[in-house]
Amino acid sequence: MIEAQPSQTALRVALRRAAHQIHDEQPLVFVDPLAVRILPAEQKLEVQRIPNSKRRPYSAGIRAFMVVRSRFAEDVLAASVARGVATQYLLLGAGLDTFAYRNPHEGVRVFEVDHPATQAWKRECLEEAAIAVPESMRHVAVDFEQTTEQGSLATQLLSAGFSLAQPTVVAWLGVVPYLTLEAFRATLRFLSGLPAGSELIFDYTYPRHAVPLQEQLMMDSMQARVTQAGEPFQLYFLEEELRAELSAASFALRENLDGAVLSERFFAGRSDGLGIRGKAAHLAHAERV
Ligand SMILES: C[S@@+](CC[C@H](N)C(=O)[O-])C[C@H]1O[C@@H](n2cnc3c(N)ncnc32)[C@H](O)[C@@H]1O
User: What is the pLDDT of residues 105-163, one digit of tens each?
Assistant: First the structure.
């Protein structure tokens, strides 16, 4: 990431969540009444111009993946709360995610971690949109790549009141591909301190060589765009590699959801053609064992 610049990819994801609310047909896969409201003023206009799924199937496929991962994470949290387990929701690389400002789960505390420049910008967006910051949430500014003890995820989160003794659902959405392997492992090491029954949801991407040629070209085009934004993709996994990384941090991979499974589970029978394309993007659901 560019040190002093808010994440451009966070804005793009937020635009796609907002577009889903406006342009996709009912029933929505992910209902977010704050998705449009949190956008900066000029993007509120831009989102109106995004064409619908049938006119731009590739772009709609990316939108589908972005909305379904948020839906999935919030479903996991709701199920954990219903079982009387989770008392904390930790969003790593929160971007313009709005869950904390519409949290329906009484007693569940929300921690939003993000890169300092992105988090400062989000707080401006919240203020401009007059979205109240509830008592149940805390903003925590951390760069996952930095190595000092003082600036570390552990130091910052624990001093904000996060408890490693409380069962937690962790959503790490749209972040892992942008990290170095060292930062990924350091974050997992911290999460390994959580109690058994804690859950982790994140998306990851298969390496280029593991997908068909046509999709490789799409990955190249996406890489060119995120690199131009100063946020290149750097980390890819095959499923077995990911299982080993998780296992080293005492997590078991419970579900490894590819585009076909997600489309079947969340997008079947839609008339607007919204669904996930390609074999590279995966959603991982892991449990602290
Ligand atoms: C593509 S956005 C996804 C945002 C959000 N999770 C969502 O789904 O809307 C990537 C997020 O990861 C954060 N991020 C990327 N690299 C980071 C780093 N080294 N330290 C902290 N946050 C980082 C960015 O600030 C941004 O909020």
Answer: 999 999 999 999 999 999 999 999 999 999 999 999 999 998 788 889 999 999 999 99
Q: Give the predicted TM-score (pTM) of the model.
A: 0.97
Give SS3 for 189: helix
Q: Decide if 229 is inside a domain.
A: yes
Cα(273) to ligand 1 centroid in Å equals 28
Q: Is 128 a member of any domain?
A: yes
Output the residue whose Cα is nearest ligand 1's atom 22. Answer: 115
The CATH number of whichever domain residue 141 belongs to comes to: 3.40.50.150
Percent of the chain with pLDDT over 90: 90
**Of 108, 101, 111, 112, which is closest to residue 87 (Cα–Cα)?**
108
What range does the domain containing 236 cover? 8-288
Of 145, 228, 230, 143, the residue nearest 180 (C-alpha): 145
- Separation of 201 CA from ligand 1 center, angstroms? 14
- Closest residue by Cα to atom 4, ligand 1, is 95
Residues facing 171 on adjacent strands: 91, 201
Q: Number of structural domains, the chain?
A: 1
The pLDDT tens digits of the residues spanning 167-180 come to: 999 999 999 999 99
Residue 142 lies in a domain: yes
Does residue 1 lie in a domain region? Answer: no
Rounded Cα distance, 140 and 157, in Å = 6
Rounded-to-integer distance, Cα 161 and Cα 90, Å: 12
pLDDT for the residue 104: 97
Q: Name the residue of 114, 173, 202 to mutate for ligand 1: max ligand atoms within 8 A of Cβ.
A: 114
Pocket of ligand 1 contains residue 173 by CB under 6 Å: yes
Q: Is there an atom of ligand 1 within 6 Å of 10 CB?
A: yes
